[in-house]
Design brief:
The protein has one domain. Helices cover about 40% and strands about 15% of the residues. It is built from five helices and four strands.
Length: about 200
């Protein structure tokens, strides 16, 4: 009697359906990672712009502290910085030799002249050969900035009484990274920082 053994071939490996399911799961995971990466980049850009705005606010504050006569005379009260201002004429005297490469710095004789120079450089920036870069108008998208004196004693004859609070406000536009109930994703929203200081 002859006994035959039957061997069943066992198939090893994945079926086509298992491979397709794996591809779908991995694809969904990769799309989620891509979304996280995009949101991270947007948050990084927003953070960079906020840092620039804070540095620009500190710039004008330090300029005010270096010019107490200009602050006391009200020369910083009402200054504004925007693209429109930068298209105008530079203040005279322009208290820097950087723009004409002459090496000769025209003197600013009064606190008012120094304040006019500070306002121009703060708003428009300063670079060699009359090219504008930096400044509120060039570093922030649609950047607008202002300084306002909140005079503590309007009747004393000083336009901005020493010890009065000054408000520095900087605004710019920023793309909204995500939708809310009132704002759709990708629309521009105005961001503002405000600092109140006593120079």
């Amino acid at each position: 009697m002859l006994i035959r053994s039957t061997c069943h071939k066992v198939h090893h490996g994945f079926t086509l359906i298992e491979v397709l399911v794996t591809i779908v799961v991995v694809s969904i995971g990769l799309l989620g990672l891509a979304g996280l990466q995009i949101n991270g980049l947007r948050a990084n850009m927003s953070s960079e712009t906020r840092s620039k705005a804070t540095m620009l606010a500190n710039d004008i504050i330090e300029r005010m502290r270096a010019n107490p006569l200009g602050v006391g005379g009200g020369a910083y009260d009402g200054i504004t910085a925007s693209k429109t201002i930068c298209e105008g004429v530079q203040p005279i005297p322009f208290c820097s030799s950087t723009n004409d490469n002459s090496g000769i710095t025209p003197p600013c004789m009064t606190g008012v002249q120094m304040a006019a120079f500070d306002a121009w450089v703060w708003g428009c920036g300063m670079a060699p050969l009359n090219t504008q870069q930096r400044g509120v108008a060039n570093q922030l998208p649609n950047g607008i900035a202002s300084v306002t004196c909140n005079d503590s004693d309007p009747g004393d004859g000083f336009p901005c009484t020493p010890g009065s609070k000054n408000t520095v406000t900087i605004s710019w536009n920023e793309l909204n990274p995500s939708a809310t109930q009132t704002i759709s994703a990708g629309t521009e929203t105005t961001q503002t920082i405000t600092l109140v200081i006593v120079p």
